[in-house]
Structure formats: structure tokens, C-alpha cells
Write a structure and sequence with these properties.
The protein contains 10 helices and 12 strands. The chain is an alpha/beta fold. The chain has a 5-stranded mixed beta sheet with strand order 3-2-1-4-7. A 5-stranded mixed beta sheet has the order 10-9-8-11-12, sandwiched between helices. The protein has a two-stranded antiparallel ribbon with strand order 5-6. Strand 1 and strand 2 form a beta hairpin. Helix 3 packs across helix 10, helix 5 crosses helix 7 and helix 8 crosses helix 9. The mean pLDDT is 96. The structure holds zinc ion. The site of zinc ion has 5 residues, from loops.
Length: 324
């Protein structure tokens, strides 16, 4: 049995699972709140605690667990296991040698990877990307992340930075982005962007299910509320998702022109919207992309949900361990 621990370091929750990297089966998983506001040392302590509890509680014998992969919401140095950029978590994360710190406490090799690159690897191996040679994966949530498989290879680019689709420019003179650029996709189509469009509609006094669903409490409007309203047929909510879908379609159209994938996978919290979001994306692509044979490209939803990132992080740990 080839088992690895996959961890997802999320802004809200820390999740960990022991996975069989041959079959994709998850044997045991646990989660706890990240409580990121307490700073990086407290969070690292919780990761170590979670690993220890997982190993104690699981039926998988300790010697069968070969290593640990951690998906982080930013850009780690994947060769050295050092955090470089973690924009959405409070604390002093840059330059933290996370892999070495955890290795010292749990006596297992630790590998870091961007969280959506982990989802891409998980979905390609065991989920919606199975069997495809070239795949693009986007996760739409608090931000927009991505990853690519090219010609049967997990393509990482310099230091693992390939697949930053959230920072594709979709408005030439657009809003300033946290990355230092402007007009980036995630400012127009991420969960917070969709929520902000919903808040604006309610603030302007428009009659919409978005307001009704939260009793006109603006603080409770998130992307899930807009999606719910759209599914109930609310025209304003549908128009918001159409707008976000148009921007996503523009970005995906650009990706098609670079890697010409057979499959494009949409994951992340916002993708549970399903058809109400997918339809405007595909419509935009069909209207704009004429140099790629679109009849050979499938636009699909992720299949593994939260497990995709956990299995992907475990697969990444295996990949790194076997190359040592
Ligand atoms: Zn950006």
C-alpha cells in the first residue's frame, strides 16, 4: 500500500486526509478551523497536531504512510519547501520554511504545492480529467486559481507558477489587483466579485431574490446566495453570473489558444453553480474562439469536490518522494 497524507491549508479550514495514491481512496480525514488571524506559528502548530491525530486515529499502519503534501493558497517554492507568497492568510508567511519545520516534528518528508495545482493533479488522476492528455483546471472561490496538464505531464513552469489563471488580464485598464497588476480575472469573476455585484444590486434598491434570501442583510450576501437566486430564476442574479461567465469565457478562450486542451475543468466553491455559470462561459467561448476545434473540447465540472485537493496534495508528495 502506498499512502500519503494530503493537506489543504485553506483560509477558513485546515483539512488533512490519508490517501492511497494508487487508487485515490481516502481512508481517514479530519479538519479543524485554520484561525489564520492567530498568525503563522499557531497555524503551523495546528497542522502538526492534525497530522499527529490523523495518524493516531487511522487504521493505516504508520509505516505505510510515506510522506505529506500540503496545498497552500499561494505560491510556495516547490523545490525548497519555502512559502513565498500567501496573500490571503494573515501573519508573516513569506520565507517560512514550512516543509522543514513540519518534517522536524513528524519525521516524514513534506512537499508544498499551490492548492489549485493540487486540485488539478487530483482531478487529472482520479476525477474529471481522467484519461485526457492536455487539461486546464480552474478553481473559482475566494480567488481564482488554476493548473495545467500538457501532453500527459503535470506542467509546473518556473517554480510551480504555471496556471495562474486568476491573474489573466480581462480588462486592459481594469481595477487594481492584489498581485500588483490590474484588470485581473479574479476581480470580475471570483466568489467575492460575484457577491459584490449582488450587494450593489440590492443597495440600488432593485427587486431581486438576492435581497429576499438574506432578509436584505447585505453582510450575508455571498456568491452562494447569488447562485441560489439564479437557480430560482431571478433575472438579476442570472445577469450577474452571465457577466462573471463572460469574463471567465474570455480567459478560458485565451487558455485554449495556448495549450489547446481536450478538457477544461471548473472546480472551487462557486462552480457548484453548475449550468447557470457554465452556460455563459461556453457561450462566450463559442462566440470568440474560432481557431481551436471546439467540438473536441469538453467543458466539465470537477468531480472530487474538496477531496480533489487532498488527493492531489498526496499525489504531489508521492511525486516528490519518488524523485528524491
Ligand atoms: Zn492579479
Amino acid at each position: 500500500m502506498n499512502c500519503y497524507i494530503g493537506i489543504d491549508l485553506g483560509g477558513t479550514n485546515l483539512r488533512a486526509a490519508i490517501a492511497d495514491t494508487e487508487t485515490g481512496q481516502i481512508f481517514h480525514q479530519k479538519k479543524c478551523p485554520t484561525l489564520a488571524a492567530e498568525g503563522q506559528q499557531a497555524v503551523i502548530g495546528r497542522i502538526i497536531q492534525l497530522i499527529r491525530e490523523l495518524r493516531q486515529e487511522s487504521q493505516v499502519p504508520n509505516h505505510a504512510v510515506k510522506g505529506i503534501g500540503i496545498g497552500v493558497p499561494g505560491t510556495p517554492d516547490i523545490d525548497k519547501g519555502i512559502i513565498q507568497f500567501l496573500p490571503n492568510l494573515p501573519g508573516k508567511w513569506p520565507n517560512v520554511p514550512l516543509a522543514t519545520i513540519i518534517e522536524g516534528q513528524v519525521q516524514l518528508p513534506v512537499a508544498l504545492i499551490n492548492d489549485v495545482r493540487a486540485i488539478t493533479l487530483g482531478e487529472w488522476t482520479f476525477g474529471a480529467g481522467r484519461g485526457a492528455d492536455t487539461v486546464a483546471c480552474l478553481a473559482i472561490g475566494t480567488g481564482i486559481g488554476g493548473g495545467v496538464i500538457v501532453n500527459g505531464q503535470f506542467h509546473l513552469g518556473i517554480g510551480g507558477t504555471a496556471g495562474e489563471f486568476g491573474h489573466h488580464v480581462v480588462e486592459v485598464d481594469g481595477l487594481p489587483c492584489g498581485c500588483g497588476g490590474k484588470g485581473c480575472l479574479e476581480l470580475y469573476a471570483s466568489g467575492p466579485a460575484i457577491a459584490a455585484m449582488g450587494v450593489k444590486e440590492v443597495m440600488h434598491g432593485h427587486t431581486t431574490r438576492i435581497g429576499e434570501l438574506v432578509n436584505h442583510d447585505l453582510n450575508r450576501i455571498d456568491a452562494g446566495v447569488v447562485v441560489q437566486a439564479a437557480k430560482e430564476g431571478d433575472p438579476i442574479a442570472i445577469a450577474i453570473l452571465q457577466r462573471a461567465g463572460t469574463y471567465l469565457g474570455i480567459a478560458v478562450g485565451n487558455i485554449l489558444g495556448v495549450i489547446s486542451p481536450q478538457r477544461v475543468i471548473f472546480g472551487g466553491g462557486v462552480s457548484v453553480a453548475g449550468e447557470v455559470l457554465l452556460a455563459p462561459i461556453v457561450q462566450t467561448i463559442k462566440g470568440r474562439v474560432h481557431v481551436i476545434p471546439l467540438d473536441k473540447v469538453a467543458f466539465v465540472l470537477a468531480e472530487l469536490g474538496i477531496n480533489g485537493g487532498l488527493i492531489g496534495a498526496a499525489l504531489w508528495a508521492k511525486h516528490k518522494c519518488e524523485r528524491l
